[in-house]
Amino acid sequence: MNDKVYETEEQIVLLENELQGLKKEYTSHKMTKEQTEQLHQIMKEAKHMESMKQKRTGNIKFVAAAAAALIGIFIILPNTSGTIAHAMEQIPVLGELVKVVTFRDYEYETDRNMADIEVPEIMPEPQTGDSALQEKLDRTTAEINAEIQTITDNLIKEFETNLKNEWGYQDVVVKSEVLATTPDYFTLKLICYQGAGSGYEWNYFYTIDLNTGERLKLKDIFVEGADYITPISENIKVQMQEQMDADENVYYWLNDEIEEWNFKAITDETSFYLNEKGNVVISFNEGDVAPMYMGTVAFEIPAEVLDGIRSEN
């Protein structure tokens, strides 16, 4: 590793990918001593590129600075005990408006019961010169954090009650994932799973408009008065049918004999998020639009489907 020289844009991209892979290993509590040493070495190389950026020109200079910024991904903390709560940044962007830390890590495991609950918290970064945006971000993130804490507290309480009453086997898992962070919006996904014989997974999505500091609702993405329900719903039906035609193991309640099961349309309350491309993604929990074996399912709506009705803001 010491002999590596990152001179071209392609090589720098390789460095970024290597950093991201090591970050994944670190956050999964599986990083070996050798990988930890590798991480430190790559970070030194990225830092060296940052010191050289004034000597670079054009696109290489920009990419080198971006790679060096990845140094900010890691807060190096002991990663040996899952019972010790720790703070871990999840978003590899400097100058971000919000970041995510894990402030509580609840773990329990016996031969009959297992809980692995990581409670995320969204942290707004201090904003200079825009007190109104700061106030809105503070309020929005506080509301989301309170909602997440209520969800996870209830799951922990239920788990401990079942432990006390010795009600069979149970698994509870809560994880989170940053789905998108752009100059305009941020989306956090909260993934929940409960198992007791059979299992059930469901998700929550939290999208913040970083221009206003407000939590986005589906209707906020569109021009006022526009019918977005119909084109989104019809496109989902098309995608469902295409997937079923392509794979006999895929099945949605679209043309089922039990009419009331069939998917007809989304609502304003249907879960959604914006991906890195800015496209709307509609998400359904297990059993919402398909048999349980299909798990949670999501449908990315192509941009052209919503042409003319997306809000410019």
Notes on the structure:
- The protein is an alpha+beta fold.
- It has helices at residues 9-27, 33-52, 58-69, 131-165, 229-246; strands at 98-109, 113-124, 170-181, 185-196, 198-209, 214-215, 272-274, 280-284, 297-300.
- A six-stranded mixed β-sheet has the order 1-2-3-4-5-6, covered by helices on one side. A three-stranded antiparallel β-sheet has the order 7-8-9, with no helix packed on it.
- The relative contact order is 0.08.
- Helix 1 packs antiparallel against helix 2, helix 1 packs parallel to helix 3 and helix 2 (33-52) packs antiparallel against helix 3.
- The longest helix is centred in the middle third of the chain and has 35 residues, at 131-165.
- It contains five helices and nine strands.
Q: Structural class given helices, strands, pairing?
A: alpha+beta
Number of contiguous helices: 5
First-last Cα distance: 46 Å
Radius of gyration: 22 Å
> What order do the helices and strands follow?
HHHEEHEEEEHEEE
Provide key terms for this protein:
alpha+beta; 3-stranded antiparallel beta sheet; about 35% helix; 6-stranded mixed beta sheet; about 325 residues; 5 helices
Topology of this structure?
Layout: H1 9-27, H2 33-52, H3 58-69, E1 98-109, E2 113-124, H4 131-165, E3 170-181, E4 185-196, E5 198-209, E6 214-215, H5 229-246, E7 272-274, E8 280-284, E9 297-300
Parallel strand pairs: 2-3
Antiparallel strand pairs: 1-2, 3-4, 4-5, 5-6, 7-8, 8-9
Helix pairs in contact: 1-2, 1-3, 2-3
